[in-house]
Amino acid sequence: MRRYARKVDSTQAEIVSGLRAAGVHVEIIEEPCDLLCHYWSRQAGRFLWQPIECKPLTGKRSLKARIRKDQAAQTDFLTMYRVPVVTSAAEALEALI
């Protein structure tokens, strides 16, 4: 059980609204990753579920997703299940293709 309120990634609202505008059903699940998306896949010819992790950008010279060191279990989950880590709605939509 958590003692403190969970901090939402700064990019999450933009990513959720972009996905929903594109017709993707998005559930905010928080754990083990931020979002669970349900969308139509033309390649598969059916609806699919895809978890997505939202991260803010960091860095002055090369922008990349910021992954904190205290999130080791989550990082292991993201790697094991190949969950896309996205920083924008465009990246999230690309991850669903």
Helical residue percent band:
25-40%
Order of helices and strands: HEEEEEHEH
The count of β-strands is 6
The helix count comes to 3
The class by helix and strand makeup works out as: alpha+beta
- Separation of the first and last Cα atoms: 36 Å
What general outline do the C-alpha atoms trace?
globular
Q: How would you sum up the major sheet?
A: 4 strands, mixed
Strand content: 25-35%
Assembly of the depicted chains: single chain
Strand order of the largest sheet: 1-2-3-6
Roughly how many Å is the radius of gyration? 14 Å
Parts with pLDDT < 50 across at least 5 consecutive residues: none
Arithmetic mean pLDDT? 86
Tally of separate domains: 1
Structure in words:
With 97 residues, the protein is α+β, with helices and mostly antiparallel strands. It has one domain (12-95). Helices cover 27% and strands 27% of the residues. The protein contains 3 helices and 6 strands; from the N terminus they run αβββββαβα. It has helices at 12-21, 72-80, 89-95; strands spanning 25-28, 35-41, 46-54, 57-58, 64-65, 85-86. The chain has a 4-stranded mixed β-sheet. A two-stranded antiparallel sheet has the order 4-5. Helix 1 (12-21) crosses helix 3. The longest helix is centred in the N-terminal third of the chain and has 10 residues, at 12-21. The mean pLDDT is 86.
Descriptive tags:
97 residues; alpha+beta; four-stranded mixed sheet; two-stranded antiparallel ribbon; 3 helices; globular
